[in-house]
Amino acid sequence: MSDNQVKTLDVKALREKYNQERDKRIRPDGEAQYMAPVGSHDRYITHDPFADSIKERAPLNDEVEVLVLGGGWTGLLASVRLAGQGIDDIRIIDDGSDFGGTWYWNRYPGAQCDIESYVYIPLLEETGYVPKEKYSYAPEMQEHARRIATQYGLYEKTVFQTRVERIDWDAEAKRWIVSTNRGDKIKARFFICCIGPFSRLRLPDIPGFDDFQGHSFHTGRWDYGYTGGDHGGNLTKLADKKVAIIGTGATAVQAIPHVGNWAKHLYVFQRTPSSIDVRGNKPTDPEWVKSLKPGWKKERSDNFDTVVRGEPFDVDLVSDGWTEIFRKVPIVHVIGAVEQADKDAVAERKARLEYADFEKMSQIRARVDQFVKDPETAEALKPWYAQFCKRPCFNDDYLPTFAKPNVTLVDVSASRGVERMTKNGIVANGKEYEVDCIIYATGFEVSGTFRRKYGFEIYGKDGLDLFDYWGTGMRTFHGHSIHNFPNFFIAGWTQVGASWNFCNVAAAITEHVAQIVAETRKAGPEAVIEATGEGEQEWVDIIRSSAGFNDEFLESCTPGYYNNEGKFRETVATFPYDQYAPGLKAFQVVLGDWWSTGKMEGMSITK
Ligand code: NDP
């Protein structure tokens, strides 16, 4: 079917085409096709290309009230919220050499926030800062992370270039013992894990991976020493290099135009094309800034959540490619409230949403023809799946890159990925591509095993290993606390109400956790809090009872981390599946109700 000829969409044919395209990509090994950068591959993460030097220091053997792991948005938010509760005796640990987390490490050329910066970037009103553009670039976000840390005095409370290796609960001392790669043994009364969903890189476990003798790195540790240039491009050292990029997800889409501009030749190995819509970035309007009233940031972020969840809305404040479909088909479905609603009406709205999505994706596919004239390349660049099956991408330079004579798209969908690597390069579709450098744009451990995702060991009461405890799936109370893991909190993305805007989730959960820490401290200097077994079970039951709400959609999607590489049913421990289905707003109501009883039910404090 040629997309340009579609006048009235043939829904049945499109569904069939989507299914075919999905099936040809599903791999029996699922998540196991990836490997963690450990052991002989740890050079992909242990080297910090952005550090001036590694600062020598003596191991720390002291004690702090709260240890915050991670200096990205979540860690910063947690620290600021703790300060708001009057808790200053904190220490932040981060393996980067400055604040920023994801935005410290992801400095690849073109890195940009893909959600509107006014809703994405946290603590704007508190710092009096308004982003310069609708979609900020990485350096502005790094600068904002530093701004927050400076304003709240967090530099003096932080140890950088330090990786936590394990934490053990010392029941007698009622403290966590935090062991790091720098020989530290820090005692902490409370431990808040703020590692974010994109902090652990993953590599493809391609046959012959270690045979390649050229240069290689992951986009999460961009090697400007090798490429030259900086975030803005100017990758002059690539002028005589043949470069391969493996992957075409949200990261690659932003980096590829820059590599294509500078490399002698660029081979892009693509398994699944991304959906590429118009970015249309623009500078912030100073008149709009003047019109902002206190509370604008929360109002705008909440409005974005409401719109992209398909819930009723009066106004779409963000009004961009994320919200477009929902403007066309408002009130699509209210997840979790289907029983109360008129089922026929819900089914009708779902059908309208599906149709609007088919229309959107037809438009996306037609855009490819606008920029890429070689028919084979253009066909390969067309995505055949629903817009939200994968992170939708918005970029004005990506598609034109494939019209350049020095850029070759290598479609590896037929072999479900790159076949193998050799001493000199990459084999795909039976042909060897000799390259000087391979750049892995292969993503992060979002839906990998817990042990791989967390990257450090956690031992609770009686030496209970958290990841053994979670052997049959994640178990938490409200996503943040775990039975038998006292004074331990996760500020994360699973078993909480989700949002496409991670920072909105992080803002809600860190505020809540900081308040729990404050309440525990009020109970006495040795007080300890943990989830009760019953409280945890009740929450897990709630999560699992709603887990199927999105099955139909996940089933229809091409594999990726959103649907656990197509195996979302095999475990409840997957990223999109293990959610409080009614979403962030409803989750915040749950938390509000929980506080209002004054009983902290589901948790117990021992004085
Ligand atoms: P992804 O996991 O989205 O993409 C990994 C890519 O590698 C996919 O294209 C995948 O193909 C490909 N791949 C993996 N193994 C192979 C193989 N063996 N052969 C060929 N190709 C392979 O990672 P990204 O880093 O691109 O994005 C991760 C997330 O980071 C995004 O979804 C987004 O949430 C976030 N991000 C956010 C930004 C922001 O502004 N906030 C900016 C950039 C990223 P396939 O699709 O077939 O699996």
From TrEMBL:
Alphabetized Pfam families for the sequence: NAD_binding_8
Enzyme class: oxidoreductase
Swiss-Prot/TrEMBL cofactor(s): FAD
Keyword annotations from UniProtKB, A to Z: FAD, Flavoprotein, Monooxygenase, NADP, Oxidoreductase
Entry GO MF terms: cyclohexanone monooxygenase activity
InterPro entries: FAD-binding_Monooxygenases, FAD/NAD-bd_sf
Sections of the chain in a coiled coil: none
Enzyme Commission identifier(s): 1.14.13.22
PANTHER family documented for this protein: BLR3857 PROTEIN, L-ORNITHINE N(5)-MONOOXYGENASE-RELATED
Family label: Belongs to the FAD-binding monooxygenase family.
Protein's UniProt name: Cyclohexanone monooxygenase
Source organism (scientific name): Sphingobium subterraneum
Source lineage: Bacteria, Pseudomonadati, Pseudomonadota, Alphaproteobacteria, Sphingomonadales
